[in-house]
Amino acid sequence: MTHAIPVAVLGASGRMGSEAVRAIEAAEDLQLVAALGRADSLQDLVASGAQVVVDLTVPDSTEQNVAFAVEHGIHAVVGTTGWDAERLGRLGNLLDQHPGVGVLIAPNFALGSVLATAFAARAARYFESVELIELHHPDKVDAPSGTAERTAALIAEARRDAGVPASPDATRTARDGARGCDIDGVRVHSVRLRGLVAHQEVLFGGAGEQLTIRHDSFHRESFMPGVLLGVREVAGHPGLTVGLDGYLDLQA
Ligand SMILES: NC(=O)C1=CN([C@@H]2O[C@H](COP(=O)(O)OP(=O)(O)OC[C@H]3O[C@@H](n4cnc5c(N)ncnc54)[C@H](OP(=O)(O)O)[C@@H]3O)[C@@H](O)[C@H]2O)C=CC1
Ligand SMILES: O=C(O)C1=N[C@H](C(=O)O)C[C@H](O)C1
């Protein structure tokens, strides 16, 4: 049998990090070599001998964590939000200087969510109107969700490519926030509610019809197969990959 991949988790005591620690410990082909939090030094990553780090921390720290990993030749699987175009650009440049290293930035590790986003991008050109609602637990620190940012961007790109005009909207007066935020012309509404985990609806409207593409994560175990897939695959995908779909064959 081949050796187990040594893996470190950053943000190991958080909601996602603790779930990832359990999943990695239960996987025979992976070995958890470090479970680190805010108080630990990133040097512990190097000392642990990790080949792959899973970053499940906070938007404020993820960029420096991943840069450190790349500079030390450690592949990174990143679920943390906050990776806007500027940060991705800087990471791409850094990876150019470390050509053997792979980084996966996965806005959502749940297979159903990855599929829902792909379906939404596919449907985007066929409807006059589109809006998006994301719904999460109230302990989430960022809004809108990273998944919503990515879904909206892909929908906008598909509509632009197909020459679809902006969604109709006659609103002339509105309270702040009433129409959500605007991501590339797609309105995104964020709900924070105790009892929820992670949910998203993409609403498409055409004359006399509506298509809703909804995904629900009821438990964080839904993200674990994607985390494990990322850990197993990242070394084989040098450079930057955005979206778990980059490791899946969604055309099949
Ligand atoms: N891609 C996906 O499928 C998913 C992504 N997420 C994203 O993952 C991130 C984490 O979410 P969640 O687990 O709910 O958040 P939590 O707040 O529960 O966990 C974050 C953890 O990171 C730790 N942390 C903060 N700063 C650092 C640092 N500099 N170095 C190491 N650890 C640090 C925190 O420690 P302390 O408590 O000491 O502050 C905390 O334990 C979010 O961005 C979220 O949006 C969440 C679910 C799924
Ligand atoms: O904070 C969360 O919980 C989640 N964060 C990610 C996001 O912002 O999209 C993924 C999932 O929605 C859960």
TrEMBL record:
Cytoplasm is among the record's keywords: yes
Keyword Heme on entry: no
Assigned keywords, A-Z: Amino-acid biosynthesis, Cytoplasm, Diaminopimelate biosynthesis, Lysine biosynthesis, NAD, NADP, Oxidoreductase
Origin: domain of life: Bacteria
Residue ranges constituting the Dihydrodipicolinate reductase N-terminal domain according to the UniProt record: 5-109
Binding positions (NAD(+)): 11-16, 79-81, 106-109
Cellular component terms per the entry's GO annotation: cytosol
GO biological process, one term: lysine biosynthetic process via diaminopimelate
Localization per record: Cytoplasm
PROSITE patterns: DAPB
Coiled-coil intervals: none
Pathway(s) it belongs to: Amino-acid biosynthesis; L-lysine biosynthesis via DAP pathway; (S)-tetrahydrodipicolinate from L-aspartate: step 4/4
Catalytic reaction annotation: (S)-2,3,4,5-tetrahydrodipicolinate + NAD(+) + H2O = (2S,4S)-4-hydroxy-2,3,4,5-tetrahydrodipicolinate + NADH + H(+); (S)-2,3,4,5-tetrahydrodipicolinate + NADP(+) + H2O = (2S,4S)-4-hydroxy-2,3,4,5-tetrahydrodipicolinate + NADPH + H(+)
GO MF: 4-hydroxy-tetrahydrodipicolinate reductase; NAD binding; NADP binding; oxidoreductase activity, acting on CH or CH2 groups, NAD or NADP as acceptor
Residue positions binding (S)-2,3,4,5-tetrahydrodipicolinate: 137, 146-147
Name of the top EC class for this enzyme: oxidoreductase
Function summary: Catalyzes the conversion of 4-hydroxy-tetrahydrodipicolinate (HTPA) to tetrahydrodipicolinate.
Record-stated family: Belongs to the DapB family.
Self-association and partners: Homotetramer.
Name by which UniProt lists this protein: 4-hydroxy-tetrahydrodipicolinate reductase
Taxonomic source organism: Arthrobacter subterraneus
